[in-house]
């Protein structure tokens, strides 16, 4: 029997999303910029601190031999490029499944490391996770459709809201409520705000599909593979709440242009998972480090072409929506 975490890696790499919402969004070019390229500032702020760059490696794996190997490469890339890394769910380590597959700060002391746990886990396990990992922040992931499609998944959900309340009241480090690729809805964001949560990752459809993954593991509900809202749609839905809570974006982010589009729509930071996973699995780590570093310069040049010196200025950029997105906005 294969390890579930290894299945996730295998099927994440094999999946190609049939639609990516970023392709239906176009940014308006500025022909006469105000700033020199050297003046462009990539710093951003979320989860209680400033970050040098507005993107990070999002939660993916851990809890298996394969997960250890992947996380070590991701940690090496993150440490060398100065971007944060979030591990996959620490729940496996709490069950003593490959606890050494999550933390590589002994090898990479300057690694900016955060971790992740499922909302189904009671707060005492969250506190244990924080004590053992000492992360910069703790992601709490909500993965309802994945659980529903997983044969071994959760079937009791009444505790989830109470668990979030307990996390908000009893965890001393910054908390990020994170979707896993189905797009966080406005109702959920409003509930998070009511509990004092300061940051959410809306993580929309368009990248890794956990519905596809669970169906590939033996499920028979392929018609749900495209369940949820796209990343751009989830960001658009969040805009009315962005003065009340920090929004992070992930889901189908492929390159610096997609990162900039997320920032234009109000995200404070952007998480990449499958894109970086594919890089470290198919290229030497040194080459991946070079690619990630080149993305920083690409972000600057795109910002210059939009006449924006800071991340905050990007939210004033005009844009066009096409296709499905334009139709939704027109009808809203």
Overview of the molecule:
This protein has 332 residues and is an alpha/beta fold. The protein has helices at 4-14, 65-81, 91-94, 123-133, 144-149, 159-170, 186-194, 210-216, 231-238, 256-264, 274-282, 285-305, 311-314, 323-331, and strands spanning 25-27, 44-46, 49-51, 55-57, 85-89, 113-118, 138-142, 175-179, 199-201, 246-250, 269-272, 319-321. The strands form three sheets. The protein has an eight-stranded parallel beta sheet. Strands 1-12 form a two-stranded antiparallel sheet. α7 (186-194) links the parallel β8 and β9 (199-201). α2 packs across α12 (285-305). The longest helix is centred in the last third of the chain and has 21 residues, at 285-305. The chain starts with a helix and ends with a helix. The model has no long low-confidence stretch (mean pLDDT 92).
Element order: H for helix, E for strand = HEEEEHEHEHEHHEHEHHEHEHHHEH
- Measured distance between first and last alpha carbons: 47 Å
Shape: globular
Number of contiguous helices: 14
Q: State Rg.
A: 19 Å
* Total E-strand runs: 12
Binned, the helix content reads 40-55%
């Amino acid at each position: 029997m294969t390890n579930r975490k290894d299945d996730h890696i295998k099927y994440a790499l094999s999946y190609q999303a049939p639609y990516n919402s970023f392709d239906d969004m176009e940014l308006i070019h500025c022909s006469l910029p105000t700033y020199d390229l050297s003046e462009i500032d990539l710093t951003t702020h979320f989860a209680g601190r400033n970050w040098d760059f507005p993107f990070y490696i999002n939660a993916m794996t851990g809890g298996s031999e394969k997960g250890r190997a992947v996380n070590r490469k991701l940690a090496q890339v993150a440490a060398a490029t100065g971007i944060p890394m979030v591990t996959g769910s620490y729940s496996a380590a709490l069950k003593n499944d490959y606890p050494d597959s999550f933390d590589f700060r002994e090898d990479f002391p300057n690694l900016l490391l955060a971790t992740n746990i499922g909302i189904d886990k009671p707060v005492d396990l969250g506190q244990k996770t924080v004590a053992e990992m000492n992360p910069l922040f703790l992601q709490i992931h909500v993965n309802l459709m994945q659980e529903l499609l997983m044969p071994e998944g959760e079937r009791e959900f009444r505790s989830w809201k109470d668990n979030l309340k307990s996390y908000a009241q009893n965890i001393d480090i910054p908390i990020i409520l994170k979707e896993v690729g189905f797009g966080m809805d406005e109702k959920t964001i409003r509930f998070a705000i009511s509990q004092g949560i300061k940051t959410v990752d809306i993580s929309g459809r368009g990248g890794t599909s956990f519905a596809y993954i669970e169906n590939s593991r033996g499920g028979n509900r392929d018609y749900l593979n495209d369940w949820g809202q796209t990343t751009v749609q989830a960001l658009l839905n969040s805009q009315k709440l962005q003065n009340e809570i920090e929004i992070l974006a992930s889901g189908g982010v492929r390159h610096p242009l997609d990162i900039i589009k997320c920032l234009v729509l109000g995200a404070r930071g952007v998480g990449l998972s499958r894109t970086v996973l594919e890089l470290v699995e198919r290229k030497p780590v040194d080459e991946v480090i070079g690619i990630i570093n080149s993305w920083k310069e690409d972000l600057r040049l795109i910002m210059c072409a939009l006449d924006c010196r800071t991340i905050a200025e990007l939210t004033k950029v005009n844009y066009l929506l096409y296709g499905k997105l334009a139709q939704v906005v027109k009808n809203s």
